[in-house]
Amino acid sequence: MLPQKNKGDLVRFYTITDPKRHRKGYTVYKVTARIVSRRNPEEVQE
Question: Superkingdom of this entry's organism (predicted)?
Answer without folding.
Answer: Eukaryota
